[in-house]
Structure formats: structure tokens, C-alpha cells
Amino acid sequence: MDLSYLITPFLAWLVAGCAKFAINTIRAKRLAFDLIGYGGMPSNHSSIVSSAAAIIAFNEGLQEPALVVALALAFIVILDASSLRQQVSKHAKAINVLNKDKVEKPLRERMGHTRLEVLAGIVTGIASAWFVHYLFTFCLM
């Protein structure tokens, strides 16, 4: 089995996660461990699924049937990250306002991604896939 298919999504997750932590740390002007999670720049979910589709395209070509499955999965995940979870975020904000005096721990409000965060995740995923493809094709042969 070609390990590039296993390494690529993990690398994309790692790169996006480290970038998100660095961006959050710079914005908050402190180590932002509490800001790790859903939402933020870049989108980890978009990075992972786009890296999977990209490594299939790079390794097998655009005619590979598995690419269609990977693109469909990516489309669903990206739509979820950019629309459904943003609605969940809006609901959490409203619920927190209503329950501000009734609960100790409010609901997490930062859930979805903006289009820019999703785009940054897609770029991160494709770049990670290209790097792994290049590494396996030209350096490890």
C-alpha cells in the first residue's frame, strides 16, 4: 500500500492545526490553547478532505473513480463547515444570552468557518498533498 494516502490527511491536519494555533496565539497575544477546536483559520476539516481528494488526483489522475467519492465527501464536509455549523454558532449565541444567569458553563459559540477560512483550508490541503506526492515521487524512489 502507498503510504502517501495515509500520510497526506494527517499532514494536512497537522499543518492546519499548527497554523490555526499560531494565528490564534498572535491574535490573542498569548498561548491560545483554549481556542483550539471548531472554527478559525484555516479550516482543519476542509484541509483534511481536500488533501485526500488532491492526493488521489496527483497519484492516480483525474479519471480515477475514487476521486469522485473524495470530492463528494469534501463537498459535504465543506458545506457543513461553512453553513450548518455557522447556524449552530448563531443558535449557541442566542441560547447563551437567554441562559446567561442560569448555567455555569455557556455553550461554545465559535463553531463554523467563513469562506476565507474554508478556502485557506482547501489551499493547505492541496499544498500538503502536493508536498507528499512530490516527496514520494521524486525523493523516496
Please write out the topology.
Layout: H1 4-28, H2 44-60, H3 65-98, H4 115-139
Please give a structural write-up.
- The chain is mostly helical and 141 residues long.
- It has one domain.
- The protein is 72% helix and 0% strand.
- Helix 2 packs antiparallel against helix 3 (65-98) and helix 2 (44-60) runs parallel beside helix 4 (115-139).
- The chain is elongated.
- InterPro entries: DUF212 (IPR003832).
- The chain crosses the membrane at residues 6-23, 35-59, 65-84, 118-136.
Q: In short, what is this structure?
A:
The chain is mostly helical. It has helices spanning 4-28, 44-60, 65-98, 115-139. It has one domain (4-139).
Rg for CA atoms: 18 Å
Q: How many domain regions?
A: 1
Topology as a string of helices (H) and strands (E): HHHH
The main sheet comes to:
none
Tell me, rounded to a whole number, the average pLDDT: 88
